[in-house]
Structures are given as C-alpha cells and as structure tokens.
Here is the input.
Amino acid sequence: MSAAREDAPLRCEGLARSFGGLQAVAGVSLALPAGQVTALVGPNGAGKTTLFNLITGNLRADAGAAWVRGRPITGLKPWQVARLGVARSFQDLRLFTHMTVRDNVLAATERSAWFWQPGGAAGRKRRQAAAEAALEATGLAALAGARAIDLAYAERKFLSLARILAAEADIWLLDEPASGLDPASRTRFAELLRAATGRGVAICLIEHNLDVVAELSDRIAFLDQGRVIAEGDPRSILRDPALAAIYFGDRHEPATAAAETTA
Ligand SMILES: Nc1ncnc2c1ncn2[C@@H]1O[C@H](COP(=O)(O)OP(=O)(O)OP(=O)(O)O)[C@@H](O)[C@H]1O
Here is the structure.
C-alpha cells in the first residue's frame, strides 16, 4: 500500500455489505486524502450511499475495515464516528425542520463536542462561535431565527452544509450536496468546498451531475455494482468511453449491439 494511502485521514479496505442476495458493496478500498475533493461517481444503485453508511456506522459491514487517522472505526456507532471528526450530509438532508436555522447548526456542534472542543462554559461559547461562523459562511445569518421548514430549497442545502461546517470535522462525506442548486448557489457552494480543502479537510462527494464533478473534484472514484472500477484524475475518468457507457446505462457487449442493429 502506498504511503499516501496510509496517511489519508480516512481509509477503508475491502468494505462489503449485501442485502439478501444483492451485493450492494462488494469489497471497496478507498482513501480520502487531506485537502482534496474525491467524487464518488457511478450509476444508480452502484452502492455509493451504502458505502457512506458503512463508513459512518449507519450500517454494519459484512467484511472489511475503515480507519480515521489510523484508528479503526469498524463497528463504532454513528455518533462515535462523528466525534472522531467525520461529518456527513444526507440526500434527504435530515434537518430538524421545526427548529430554527441557528438551533439546527448548534445541534450539529454538540454532536462533535467531546474530542474536539473543551467542555463547560468555554466549550459552549466556542460552539456558539462555530455555529455563527458557519451561518455567516453559508449566507444564512439573516435567516438564523427562521424555521428550517420555511427555507427555500437552496437555503436548506446550505443549512445542511452549515451543520457540517459548524461540526469542525476534518472529513466530510456529502451525499448529493449540490443537486438542484442554481448556478449562483453552486458557485458559492464550490467556494465553501475550496475553503475547506484549503484548511486540509478531506471531502468525499456523491454527485450525479458530471459538470459539477468536473468543476469540484480533484479525483474520482468510479463505483459500479459495489466495486471501485476506476480511480484517479477527473479528466481522464470523465473522458473514458467505457465508463461513460456504464454511467449512462449502455452496457451492451459489441456482439449484442451488432445483433440489435441488424435485427
Ligand atoms: N437497506 C437496504 N435494503 C435493501 N437493499 C438496499 C438497502 N440499501 C440499499 N439497497 C440496495 O443496494 C444497492 C445500492 O444502493 P445505494 O443506495 O448504495 O446506491 P447508490 O449508488 O447510492 O444509488 P443512487 O445513485 O441511486 O443513490 C441498490 O440496489 C439498493 O436498492
């Protein structure tokens, strides 16, 4: 194994999980380098969200292991993984919809409180400051007193990101964080990611929009049928015709395609 892989803040080896007869994740080994955005790309059902769930402890792995800064996390509960500095967002956002924007962000700081922040009044103050900074950075400060349920779609996406920012984690797992964002919001989102990688955060992003992937990612891991089948530089992966065929659902073997053409 390369030194870079060993040094990565988050690393997994041979993670696997099936549901009944379906092998959703079939032995994934992956490292997330500090200060880089890794896009997890692949067709629907490739196992991307399941992989996140295995890393964060939301699902138990059948096989394999994962480490945060060299510490084994396999078998830990989600809150224990969070307290090691892994922050995660969900496709369905999972906000506390009837709480205020500020309280949503504060709740995220509390989950990560033990190892990262001092306790008592000083800890509370620091968490409040982190929450306010996250609200500022995501453009939500003016909406801090609004209920999450009353936010527009893009604002909810930024609230989800503000929760991640406030947790002061150095590993971010983001499940389709940019989907449905208008171009201006996407630019703001890209700036926030760049600022985070500039601080050394390791980011893994599940993303279906390949323009967003090209714009945001430093590297791609291409997942298909539960396996990483290609990994590396976005330009070469996005130009690979075989991967494009898998991504867009055209899995015809040449013989089959010929047979169909002549039928
Ligand atoms: N809890 C579950 N029970 C049964 N099957 C599941 C469960 N979670 C995921 N699966 C199945 O595992 C496979 C991988 O799902 P997963 O959601 O990880 O894929 P994905 O790559 O994230 O897909 P998408 O891009 O559509 O979100 C799919 O066939 C899915 O139906």
